[in-house]
Design goal:
Elements: E1 3-8, H1 15-21, E2 23-25, H2 32-41, E3 47-52, E4 59-66, E5 71-72, E6 96-97, E7 99-111, H3 112-117, E8 135-138, H4 140-148
Parallel strand pairs: 1-3
Antiparallel strand pairs: 1-8, 2-7, 3-4, 4-7, 5-6
The chain binds a DNA duplex (12 and 12 nucleotides) through loops.
DNA sequence: GCCAACGTTGGC
DNA sequence: GCCAACGTTGGC
């Protein structure tokens, strides 16, 4: 069992949107490091921290889980998709995705500021300087610490 | 909206 | 293989 943090811009797709949909294909990842996590390491049942990025209140908004094995992202072959990648070979797709299932919203959002201030998290890909990875690994200890902030006063 | 940091592209 | 130009990410 592994744990992950996955970023989404709430104005595009928020934890409320996932709650409504239940399960959603996590398409559009176009970064090789993130692709490798998805394709090579994610397993059904892995825990996912749903992170709201590029918004007024960045932070972990809820919990989800990996709901499928990795499979090729269909949007790379869709000419009208903004994720279309004409250079991706049909017989060796470049981009992969998993389905993600809603588990629950957190009682309170765990803000980026809270994560930056918690020294117990140690080396954490999310708070490394200049980090832009949209899918990143979280250790079991980090997972517990982050969710432990759920009921902090806002 | 600004801008620093980063990844990718393409000329050489 | 180098590196400048460009596009994107994401906090602020």
């Amino acid at each position: 069992m592994h744990y992950w943090l996955m970023k989404s811009e709430p104005q595009t797709f928020s934890i409320e949107d996932l709650a409504r949909k239940g399960v959603e294909p996590w398409d559009g990842v176009r970064n090789y490091q993130a692709r490798n996590f998805i394709r090579d390491a994610m397993r059904v049942g892995d825990g996912v921290l749903f992170y709201h990025s590029n918004c007024a209140e960045p932070g972990v908004a809820g919990i989800a889980e990996v709901a499928s094995a990795a499979y090729p992202d269909p949007s790379q072959f869709a000419p009208r998709s903004k994720y279309h990648d004409p250079g991706s070979p049909r017989d060796a797709p470049r981009w992969w995705l998993v389905d993600v299932r809603f588990v629950r919203k957190l009682a309170h959002m765990v803000s980026l500021q809270t994560l930056q201030r918690d020294a117990r998290l140690g080396d954490f890909a999310l708070t490394r300087r200049g980090n832009r990875l949209s899918v990143l690994p979280v250790s079991a200890a980090q997972w517990r610490i982050i969710i432990g902030h759920e009921k902090d006063p806002v």
